[in-house]
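Revision sheet: structure tokens.
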Amino acid sequence: MGDRIRELLLDSRSGSIAPMAEMALMFADRAQAIAEVIEPALASGKIVLCDRFTDSTEAYQGGGREIGSTTVLELHRLICGDLQPDLTLLLLPSLTVSLARARRRNDRAGAQSGKDEGRFEKEQDAFFARVWEKYREIAAREPDRIMLIEGDLTVDDVHEQIVEAVAMRLSEVHVI
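Predicted:
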């Protein structure tokens, strides 16, 4: 179910979706993932990795769509039971590099799979500037949870910082 919602949200053929409807769909996808995957895994003692969670909704819909953080965080509390990651790795290259990578990745993925996942990448640069700034704001607000890996780093540098951050967090919870 979540994959079908995600496909609808990312497909540029979906056209314009009202900002609140877009956010509601993001939370519908997340609620389904929590019920189907995340909660059962956590209940069985597993470590769960997600490539996106509510920080992305806060950045894209709260910042990019200018809905604001208050509404996003209240919906997170209601819909997600205020479930929070223990660690968030925020990879934040410069805005220019980030946008170019995303557009190239979607072009490649579309050519390989035939799927169109470029609806967000068609937005104007001002939208992405608001998203980028919101991510920085979230990281500043929650430094204990968010490990900010910032700048136009090499793959090896990013890898090294990720390994260090994950090892440190796992040792704090006595997993390693």
